Amino acid sequence: MNTSTWNDSMSIEELFLFDQYDIENLTMSSGNSTQVLSHNDLLFAGGSAISISAIGLILNQIVFWKFLSPKQLSNSFHVLCLSKSFSNTITCLIGLFWIGPTIAINNLFLPPDVNKFLGQFNEYGVYTMGPLTQTLMTIDRFIMIFYPLKFSERKRCKIAVISIFCCWFIALSFVAATYNDDCWVAYNISILNYIAKNDACDKFNLKILTIGCIILAVITLSFQTSNLTKILIMFSKSSSPELASKSQKWRTIRLFVQSVIQDLLHFLDLLNSKNFFGITNILGHFFIFTFSLLFVHALDGLIMCFFHCNLRRKQRSSKNGPLVVLI
Fold first, then answer.
1. CA gap 152, 320 in Å, rounded
2. What residues have CB less than 8 Å from 183, skipping those under 6 apart?
3. G-protein coupled receptors family 1 profile domain: which residues (predicted)?
């Protein structure tokens, strides 16, 4: 995630009119050189954004509707996957119906205030939900692996739902706190990236967001290390009370691997947003920042689809009656 800045004297209305103006080429200054974007470049970038957003929307909607039922919502991990697919869907919808078409037709067809709101909501709100939800998924695996009998599925579901609402409160509070006249971002066609009104304020917000993501990554890594250690210990025993059947063993491994891959996905996206290779080309910036943001949410949906493509239900008896196990 990265933004650029414009001169403080330029209002969003002026920027809006600048991008609305129909010109043959768009230019962007970089050092002592001027970069030029042709209409073919814009069509290519816009088409890429629309394509990956459409793919991501389909994948995340498959996950969303797969888990949106009373039966599937009885599983805490599936509740978290449902929440993840919902936030992913929002980003893909913005890319499909706003960012992609805006670039392709070289026209900010929505009012400036809408551009401002979508930029702030997507960059600071929905983006924050990714690492927050991922941390919840890792903690859920930790509880399931270390305390399989202490916390019932119903109790874990309640914890998951309450935690999701808390995460949305944190994300939306961050948006509200940064949403004022001098501290917001909006999408700009001339550089194919989000642009900040106030550079100092934006850098401060990004610093907070980066530190928060790093803290969540450390927490997640700690829990994942503990999960892996526990799994190896359980698998080293010929008969483990925590893993009563082979299907449960493979389910534990599958969900652990899914969680780890999704953790790495967000971590790599965070590293990518720092542009370590120093790319200054406009299209390069587009793929590093705008396209990457859409690609990560699409790939996240693909991962969830892959690991839950054969979801089915099986009953086994227990002391308290029939117990439903999702495998």
1. 12
2. 197, 198, 201, 202, 205
3. 59-327
Burial label for 49, CB within 10 Å (0-12, 13-18, 19+), is buried
Cα separation, 212 vs 220, in Å, equals 12
pLDDT in tens, 280-315: 788 888 998 899 999 999 999 999 998 877 655 444
Residue-wise pLDDT tens digits, 154-163:
888 999 999 9
Cβ-based neighbours of 196, under 8 Å, separated by 6 or more: 3, 4, 5, 6, 184, 185, 202
Between the CA atoms of 214, 216, 221 and 227, what dihedral angle is there, to the nearest 10 degrees? 180
Helices (H) and strands (E) in the chain, counts: 11, 7
User: Does the 4-326 domain belong in CATH 3.40.228.10?
Assistant: no
Percent of the chain surpassing pLDDT 90: 27
- Residue 126: pLDDT band (50, 70, 90) is very high
CA atoms of 288 and 175, how far apart (whole Å): 23
Dihedral sign, Cα of residue 208, residue 212, residue 214, residue 218: positive
Contact 225, 275 (CB under 8 A): no
Domain segments of the chain as ranges? 4-326
Burial class, 93, CB count within 10 angstroms (exposed 0-12 / middle 13-18 / buried 19+) = middle
